[in-house]
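Our preliminary data section would be incomplete without showing what the modeling component actually yields. Below, a chain of 301 amino acids is followed by its predicted structure, encoded as tokens that our downstream tools consume directly.
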Amino acid sequence: MLRVGAVDIGTNSTRLLIAEVEDGRVRPLRRALETTRLGAGLREGILLPESINRTVTTLCRYRGLLQESGVTREIAVATSAVRDAANRDEFVEVVKGETGFDVRVINGHEEAAYSFGGVVSGLSLPPDQVLVMDVGGGSTEFVWQNAGVLQKKSLALGAVRMTLESSTSENMREVLRPVAKMVSRLSSLRLVGVGGTCTTLAAIDLKMEHYDPDGVHGYILTRRRVGELLDELARCTLEERQRIPGLQPERADIIVAGVRIVFNAMMVFNRDQIQVSEADILYGLALNAAQDVEQKGGASY
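Predicted structure:
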């Protein structure tokens, strides 16, 4: 059994998973999430100093947690916000110097593959029966298998990005339609949603005063219910949304755009249900980290 640490530096949040991995299964020991908003202001193509500082501060704390936990292997990746930024190399260098994390900037296809591996492991589903939708802050990834071959598509649809751009449902559907056409012959695939928007939707529907990953994991939402929640959230003021059970106040300003992505995807893909998975890219990263150790015959520090 290997103890690993995985860090996901996203557009909206920076997350940590410390877990034990054995026989392709991930057992979480500790989770952490901070809303760092690294993608704030990215419309100009640059990661802002204050956003970088927030993220570095969080990563310093995560470094301490990893040291306390005695992990054998760590892996840290950055996704949409960093890969789209003109100063991505500077960010990676600053993080390395301040925190020791050797951050790898992954592309949308890699991001989707890690999420897919996490979902399949976490929900114990056959790989050829799953369509994973990973709604992030800056992008949304879709991944599925067709005849045993992994298919991946990354779209510039994200909760933060769509909030900043004030994107409409029709704009979103135009972007989603080409992917829907790609999976039109695979209508039996189960739609599984990962990422903060999807897990928050489940938490809101469950009226969770305190977030419970086990309660969220595997939860099923109907398209009708997602539409109802979208209408309810859109009618609320920001202050009202910040008081909704299950919704982190820090996510209240971007949740409407995120839920609109989910709802329009269900419409365009003609899916009546979406199953929420707490197992996501962090699980996939943890599996990858453990596999690296096993292949090398020991720790890779």
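Residues 297-301 have pLDDT under 50 and may be disordered. Residues 2-107+285-296 form a domain with the Nucleotidyltransferase; domain 5 fold (CATH 3.30.420.40). Preliminary results of this kind motivate Aim 1 of the renewal.
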